[in-house]
Specification:
By secondary structure, the chain is α+β, with helices and mostly antiparallel strands. It contains three helices and ten strands, in the order E-H-E-E-E-H-E-H-E-E-E-E-E.
């Protein structure tokens, strides 16, 4: 039987932890597994983790973290989505959609009205197909030593509630990015 999407276990599990070893299991060892090292940012670890295993191997992951944010004059919280990864040999099988959708189902129980993520421009079409929308507003994030920097990656949002409209205005994340 050929390796196709029907032979991949389509079950997302809640992970009790997610380590650098787990990330390496998905993406392989490397200095820049997400292709964002050029942004020179310090990132927050996620608190909630979801994964897909295939043949005993972790092949996909998405992480969540609740974060404070200001959108224009409105202070609120978002669920940050990050660490989304699918093993290169397993891409194109719908695993990103499955792990992100399951993570967002959980995010809906966390309280905030929106989820936010940062991604490289080539990934914008993937997230758009998953219901995310790019922000045109500048997004500022915190970095060590009280520095504020403009996010060089593409920022995307998706509602977690019906009729949840994203306010207009510049965005300030009151934390490191996720």
């Amino acid at each position: 039987m050929s390796e196709n999407s029907s032979s991949v276990a389509q079950t997302v599990v809640r992970l009790t932890r997610y380590t650098k070893t787990d990330q390496d299991e998905i993406l392989g060892e490397g200095d820049d597994p997400f292709g964002v090292a050029a942004a020179r940012l310090v990132w927050l670890p996620k608190k909630e983790h979801f994964g897909i295993r295939h043949g005993g191997r972790l092949v996909a992951h998405a992480g969540l973290l609740r974060l404070p944010v200001a959108i224009g004059d409105t202070e609120t919280e978002v669920v940050g989505v990050g660490g989304v990864a699918v093993a290169p040999d397993m891409q194109g099988r719908g695993l990103a959609r499955l792990v992100v959708t399951t993570a967002l189902d959980h995010a809906r129980t966390m309280g905030p009205r929106h989820a936010l993520l940062f991604c490289r421009p080539p990934l914008v079409p993937l997230y758009h197909r998953l219901g995310w929308h790019p922000l045109d507003e500048q997004v500022v994030v915190e970095q060590p030593e009280s520095r504020l920097v403009a996010m060089p990656l593409r920022t995307m949002v998706t509602p977690l509630r019906d009729n949840a409209n994203w306010p207009s205005g510049p965005v300030r994340l009151y934390s490191l990015p996720m």
